[in-house]
Amino acid sequence: MNDGKSTVPRDVPVRGVPIELCQLLKFGGLAATGGEAKAHISAGKVQVNGVTETQKRKKLQAGDRVSFDGQTLVVRLA
Question: Do β-strands 59-60 and 47-48 pair in parallel, antiparallel, or remain unpaired?
Fold first, then answer.
């Protein structure tokens, strides 16, 4: 079954690091609002580099991989 979600990691270019986890989810299009992003993180639905992360303001660096809802984002410097 294909639900339209890609399992291929997608690069998200950012101007500078670190970037907060909640900001990346919103900026990367995996959450509509910052509040929605924070709720998903608090609920333990988000992984950073393969480990469940519950810190909303976790600082991410270039190369970090964030997975949520069957999609993976990779932080890249623009």
Answer: unpaired
pTM over 0.85: yes
Average pLDDT value for residue range 4-22: 87
Position 74, amino acid: V
Q: How far apart are CA 13 and CA 64, in angstroms?
A: 12
Q: Which contiguous run of DSSP H or E holds residue 76?
A: strand 71-77
Pair 75, 24: CB distance under 8 Å: yes
Rounded to whole angstroms, how far apart are CA atoms 34 and 76? 20
> What number of other Cβ atoms are within 10 A of residue 37's Cβ?
24
| CA nearest neighbour of 61 among 7, 10, 14 | 14
Tell me: the pLDDT tens digits for 22-71? Answer: 999 999 999 999 999 999 999 999 999 999 999 999 999 999 999 999 99
